[in-house]
Design goal:
This protein is an alpha/beta fold. The chain has ten helices and ten strands. Strands 6-7-8-3-9-10 form a six-stranded mixed sheet, with helices on both faces. Strands 2-1-4-5 form a four-stranded antiparallel sheet, covered by helices on one side.
Length: 258
């Protein structure tokens, strides 16, 4: 079977809310094994792109394909089952549950037993739960959050909560990981840590990563490709170093060009 080089394809996507154009004729390809960044000012349409990929929004026109499948009629859970997981700009963890329990929710996608087996806690159910626990424990080790395993989310620092949300997304064993501002609100040390983990996920686990963030230094350091959005339109598509020198990008995002 031939490999699909383009994992996600946006083709002339428009997204309208009444008279507001959130996305206007946006096209790009996300290739396999890339670390792809989407940057731009607030309100540029970055999260709208994520919502179109994950099935929360349906484009007004144009096509979105994932693994060469048109996702127009697919529900978010069906898209997740293709191998797409995401984190959110605002932390969406269960605060009254432990770190381990939150991560196990992500691993639930890999559990295969019915309600009766669960009620009786049959041999199959026990085996499947053990499998999910191993997935969770491996991720806990990978992201270095062992000491927080049994801690309740509401008692943990913000930076650790962001890491746990990343862990839950990884527990789905995705082929494509969507990260919506993973370093937002973090100090320099926490930002360096999360950047290191993103690189490890990309390089060691072989996951294609799609990243939205406002930390330009981090994006320029780790991304292999970047698109720049402004008012729902794509301004630039290419190498991160070239983006930092592009006149339109500088005017829209980095400040007015001299």
């Amino acid at each position: 079977m031939a490999l699909i080089n383009s994992l996600i394809n946006f083709n002339n996507v428009n997204l309208n809310f009444g008279g507001v154009n959130a996305l206007t004729e946006v096209s790009f390809d996300i290739k396999e094994n890339s670390l792809f960044a989407i940057i731009g000012p607030n309100g540029a349409g970055k999260t709208s792109i994520f919502n179109c990929i994950s099935g929360i929004y349906r484009p007004t026109s144009g096509k979105v394909k994932i693994f060469d499948q048109d996702i127009k009629t697919m529900r978010p859970d069906a898209i997740a089952n293709l191998g797409v997981s995401r984190t959110f700009q605002n932390i969406e963890l269960f605060e009254n549950m432990t770190t381990l329990d939150n991560i196990l929710i992500g691993a639930h996608r890999h559990i295969d037993y019915g309600s009766i087996a669960g009620l009786l806690f049959s041999k199959k159910a026990r085996k499947e739960e053990e499998k999910a626990r191993k997935i969770a424990e491996d991720i806990i080790d990978f992201l270095e959050i062992e000491e927080y395993r049994y801690s309740y989310i509401l008692s943990l620092p913000y930076g650790i909560q962001k890491r746990i949300e990343l862990a839950r997304a990884l527990a789905m064993k995705p082929k494509v990981l969507l990260l919506d501002e993973p370093a937002a609100g973090m100090n320099n040390e926490e930002t360096e840590d999360i950047a290191r983990f993103i690189l490890d996920i990309h390089e060691e686990l072989g996951v294609t990563v799609v990243l939205i963030d406002h930390d330009m230094n981090m994006v320029m350091d780790i991304a292999t490709e970047v698109i720049v959005m402004d008012f729902g339109k794509k301004l630039f598509d290419g190498n991160p170093k070239e983006a930092s020198k592009d006149k339109n990008v500088i005017e829209a995002y980095l400040g007015v060009s001299e």
